[in-house]
Write a structure and sequence with these properties.
This protein has 559 residues and is α/β, with parallel strands linked by helices. The chain is built from 20 helices and 25 strands. The longest helix is centred in the N-terminal third of the chain and has 21 residues.
């Protein structure tokens, strides 16, 4: 059996100019990065303004488990299957971060015969977007420290500098550092730290910006510090937003690649969903909607994180109206939620399946709260028994949602035809009905009420408790005029609660908010719960140990 990277390396890719031509993109609007990847130029947007948008399909999932769910694989496979049934479909995904690639997860370009290619490029440096975001972020940090060194005319309180450096790599040693050591010529000593690039506000800004002018304005709105009088200091006050925009002007352009079956795919932006908003760029999604009759996109981790933020942040800002949600699960993962050890997941266990299926039920109910129809996709494993499959089908029928047993990993688009047909039928049946998408809460609510709405309606918590630091931070954010922003909750992905050990549908718990930070450039307030980290560390046996490159440049072990 071939590995993912071997399948990808044997792919018969089309030149990117052919993929673009199939979408109606002329060579004048294409900026190739080699033969198989390209950026699209700004001029393409204005030429498509007259077109109607296609139908937007969001792929999300139950809470992730060690058993695996395969959300990206289903996203790619569904796009391939839509092409096989004659639907002009465009895929819009996030770019992988080097942190997980070399950490515990490995690559993030799909799997088996449902991948985006060139897989190695996409998983590694790709077109340099991550590096551009890192450089722009760290330029602002350098400007802050230089301002302190050169006299500090803004009277920045060095104890209240909020904006951190970033690096697109898991490196726990950089979470908390001291800069400016070595004497007067080397800067003003102060505490600092690093976030991973995909958790940075600059990444969020790039993904939410509508165009270059909006990007520049959002960069200027970044809250970097408070002065000695307690007044906010923004990036625009340091005068470097023009330079930051210059670093990001090409990174703002979406990247065009293809699936193994030569379907078009925009891969652009990569914020994490547990510590950021977890969706690909607005620019890529809107472009895909102009070019395709259907667009398949994905939000990170379970629907309690990525999908909630997709609806309440991205759709709200971008004016997007999703037509359908595809909720991905596996029978193995549901049994894991029923407390079956990982090594026993291949054995039939209807009792554990029934107990763990409460997680699937909850995610379906949650998605319906946004008034969007749901189709369940079960990534099928050879160990799934007929009785287990029947149980899941009966559960979905009881809840009034379609379910499809999906085999895109093994069969590519052919293994997702049933899913594609059910998605299209669901969209057709619900289109024009009384139900219409709307976010979960109004941004006019106080910050605490927005948090409590998400905790109650999505996490199913009994309440929310706040540390003294969180109370102080929320009060301060509201006092400087930013209380009307959406909230972006940083929470463990493994549970509906803020405790990763509580599987299924936890009961009798409260969510603990330990801090809040304003991302005024991105346009949301980050709410920190549990022990979530903005700079992950490497595991004991990181994926980097398995990756190699021979003398001919052939990469192995990437995924």
């Amino acid at each position: 059996m071939l590995s993912d990277i071997e399948i990808a390396q044997n792919a018969k890719m089309k030149k990117i100019t052919e993929i673009a031509a199939d979408l109606g993109i002329s060579d004048d609007c294409l900026e190739p990065y080699g033969h198989y990847k390209a950026k699209v130029s700004e001029s393409l947007y204005s030429s498509l303004a007259f077109r109607n948008d296609g139908k937007l399909i969001l792929v999300t999932a139950i809470n992730p488990t060690p058993a695996g769910e395969g959300k990206t694989t289903v996203s790619v496979g569904l796009t391939e299957a839509m092409g096989r049934i004659g639907k002009k479909t465009v895929l819009a995904l996030r770019e992988p971060s080097l942190g997980p690639v070399f950490g515990i997860k490995g690559g993030a370009a799909g799997g088996g015969y449902a991948q985006v290619v060139p897989m190695e490029d996409i998983n590694l440096h790709f077109t340099g977007d991550m590096h551009a975001i890192t450089a722009a972020n760290n330029l602002l940090c350098a400007m802050i420290d230089n301002h302190l060194q050169q006299g500090n005319t803004l009277r920045i309180d060095q104890r209240r500098i909020l904006f951190k450096r970033c690096l697109d790599m898991n490196d726990r040693a950089l979470r908390n550092i001291i800069v400016g050591l070595g004497g007067k010529a080397n800067g003003v000593p102060r505490e600092d730290g690093f976030n991973i690039t995909v958790a940075s506000e600059v990444m969020a800004i790039l993904c939410l910006a509508s165009d270059l002018a909006d990007l520049k304005e959002r960069l200027g709105n970044i809250l970097v510090a408070y002065d000695l009088d307690g007044k906010p200091v923004f990036a625009r006050d340091l005068g470097c937003t023009g330079a930051m925009t210059a670093l990001l002007k090409d990174a703002l352009k979406p990247n065009l690649v293809q699936t193994l079956e030569n379907n078009p795919a925009f891969i652009h932006g990569g914020p994490f969903a547990n510590i950021a908003h977890g969706c690909n760029s607005v620019r890529a999604t809107k472009l895909a909607l102009k070019l395709g009759d259907y667009v398949v996109t994905e939000a990170g981790f379970g629907s309690d994180l990525g999908a909630e933020k997709f609806f309440d942040i991205k759709c709200r800002y971008a004016g997007l109206v999703p037509s359908c949600v595809v909720l991905v699960a596996t029978i193995r993962a549901l049994k894991y939620n029923g407390k079956v050890p990982k090594e026993d997941l291949g054995k039939e266990n209807l009792w554990a399946l029934e107990k763990g299926s409460v997680n699937l039920r909850t995610h379906i109910e949650n998605m319906h709260k946004y008034h969007v129809p749901v189709v369940v996709a079960i990534n099928r494993f050879a160990s799934d028994t007929d009785e287990e499959i029947k149980f899941v089908k009966d559960l979905c029928a009881e809840m009034g949602v379609e379910v499809s047993m999906c085999e895109v990993f093994a069969k590519g688009g052919e293994g997702g035809i049933d899913l594609a047909e059910k998605v299209c039928q669901t969209i057709e049946l619900t289109e024009g009905g009384d139900e219409r998408f709307r976010p979960l809460y109004s941004t006019s609510l106080p910050i605490k009420e927005k948090i409590e709405t998400i905790a109650r309606e999505i996490y199913r918590a009994d309440g929310v408790s706040y540390t003294a630091q969180a109370e102080k931070a929320i009060k301060e954010i509201e006092s400087i005029g930013f209380g009307d922003l959406p909230v972006c909750v940083a929470k463990t992905q493994y549970s509906l609660s803020d405790d990763p050990k509580k599987l299924g549908k936890p009961k009798n718990f409260t969510i603990t908010v330990r801090d809040a930070r304003l991302s005024s450039g991105a346009g949301f307030v980050v709410i920190y719960t549990g022990e979530i980290l903005t700079m992950p560390g490497l595991p004991k046996a990181p994926s980097a140990l398995n990756i190699d490159c021979d003398v001919n440049g052939c990469i192995t072990g990437l995924f």
